[in-house]
Amino acid sequence: MALHYDEIVRGSLAKQVADLIRAAILEGRLQVDERLPTEEELARRFGISRPTVREALKVLAAQNLIRSRRGPAGGTFVTRPDLDAAARTITDAATLLVGMGRFEIDEIVAARGQTEALCCRLAARNRTDEDLDAMAQELSLQQDETLNDEDFCASDVRFHRAVVQATGNGPLQFIMHAMIESFIPITNMLIYRHHERRRTIGAHQKIRAAIAERDEDTAAALMQHHVEGMRAVLDQALAHRRPEKPGGETI
Amino acid sequence: MALHYDEIVRGSLAKQVADLIRAAILEGRLQVDERLPTEEELARRFGISRPTVREALKVLAAQNLIRSRRGPAGGTFVTRPDLDAAARTITDAATLLVGMGRFEIDEIVAARGQTEALCCRLAARNRTDEDLDAMAQELSLQQDETLNDEDFCASDVRFHRAVVQATGNGPLQFIMHAMIESFIPITNMLIYRHHERRRTIGAHQKIRAAIAERDEDTAAALMQHHVEGMRAVLDQALAHRRPEKPGGETI
DNA sequence: TTTTTATATTTGTCAAACCTTTTGCGTTTT
DNA sequence: AAAACGCAAAAGGTTTGACAAATATAAAAA
């Protein structure tokens, strides 16, 4: 009687149901925007209770696979895969890893320098005038001396995103989203005094100019130098900052 | 009386609670492996019912932020950010987008060609002997003529991952994981007849040799050519394959 | 001392109801 | 006839209270 006792129960009922519905969506048995049965009906069909069904649906909703609305025309619907939502998901995952110190600063800087340099090359090839305008808009914003640090950093992020956007490559934009959104905030935490800003803006301007001229090599070299140039000042800044354990009221 | 009407209610109670706990974890107010109060206690503190608390916890569990165990020493614990779990998350998100046809084949091939070529450069710089061994192991596996298509594809994926691994860069490995795991299955769906296999193996061998010699340029060029060479055969294969709507029993 | 048993604790599940939002229809009013 | 209003039904959102299952710890028995 040496049968396999695994696979008989793969976890909680909610997990099993979530897996079943997820599989149905991924395999196309549930079309986009199709409406699932009501929670009560699902509970009846799976032979479980409604709270358990709801736990399963919450998991799927957290993965951006379904959405729910109330009312007679409401219900649970299969969500069209959304680039922004997916990007947010991976950004959150990456941000968590970075925030918890799973990566070395050197690694992050190197990865950003290399991948963004690559994006510069492709941007120089494929950029449109609109892409250049988007970069120019952030550059003019960054000129504003009265901008506070937070807004300056946000504009910096948008500039780097504009470069990625200019590549015109969806999959690349997708993964670079995680790179930029999750790694830049760490690198931008303490720097940006006034003369730092001037240097950053100068680098951005030269990068944009090279992309405008479709000069791949120059654009890539500039970007890599720009990103990796932040390492020294970053090391110095982080050395001063000992993260004390926050004692705020917890849950 | 022109006040802002947003922010009054940000969503369901479960979502609000999930956001609160998530913020507590991300801000470090809840340490890794720290135990949260029991579900009953959380319900009391937030002034909501236990099923609602459970819905919130399920969302966080789906995001790999917490885990739960039963029993006296059980409870809900903050999960240490896990590279594999995070990689699986972003791979799932990317796979969904690819599977739903949100990206063009050309885009995918171009993105893979460029990024993997970049990885080849870094691999040539930083590879260890263990990395070369890992590639060699897959190569010898791929020589086996009796290997079925599924196993051959799996080995192919592992070879590409070995190249990424050889870069020694954690953040890069993280995002390339999504690239390789989610995009390769699509590209590998219909090809790999015998003479295709020989060509693939030959390319792999040359790539590994170039990485072994620390010849960046050659390795990168070989990889890019290898990946982008699949475009023609892929276009042809996909032209024959009209995805009919599966009529299997739905939920 | 080792093994077994009991017990307390905590998550997992269930059942039945009530609340809130949304929609659509029917009525009333203009 | 058209617009405004109001009501009722449908569906998700929430509550209450209970029971089931797992599991670590302590107690009891061998």
Fold and architecture overview:
2 copies of one chain form a homodimer. The radius of gyration of chain A is 24 Å and the shape is elongated. In chain A, 67% of the residues lie in helices and 3% in strands. In chain A, strand 1 (66-69) and strand 2 form a beta hairpin. Chain A has 251 residues and is mainly alpha-helical. Mean pLDDT of chain A is 86; it is low at 1-7. A two-stranded antiparallel ribbon of chain A has the order 1-2. Chain A is built from 11 helices and 2 strands; from the N terminus they run H-H-H-E-E-H-H-H-H-H-H-H-H. The longest helix of chain A is centred in the middle third of the chain and has 22 residues, at 105-126. Chain A folds into 2 domains: 13-78, Orthogonal Bundle (Arc Repressor Mutant, subunit A), CATH 1.10.10; 84-239, Four Helix Bundle (Hemerythrin (Met), subunit A) (Up-down Bundle), CATH 1.20.120.530. The structure holds a DNA duplex (30 and 30 nucleotides).
Structural class of chain A: mainly alpha
Percent strand of chain A: under 5%
Largest contact between protein chains?
A: A-B, 67 and 67 residues
CATH fold type of the largest domain in chain A: Four Helix Bundle (Hemerythrin (Met), subunit A)
Categorize the overall geometry of chain A: elongated
How many domains comprise the coordinates of chain A?
A: 2
Q: Give the number of helices of chain A.
A: 11
What is the CATH class of the largest domain in chain A? Mainly Alpha
Could you state the order of secondary-structure elements of chain A as H and E?
Answer: HHHEEHHHHHHHH
**What is the second-level CATH architecture of the largest domain in chain A?**
Up-down Bundle
Largest sheet of chain A: 2 strands, antiparallel
Report the CATH superfamily of the largest domain in chain A: GntR ligand-binding domain-like
Multimerization status = homodimer
- Poorly predicted spans of chain A: 1-7
| Quantity of strands of chain A, as a count | 2
Q: What's the pLDDT, averaged over the residues of chain A?
A: 86
Cα-atom radius of gyration of chain A? 24 Å
Percent range for helical residues of chain A?
A: 55-70%
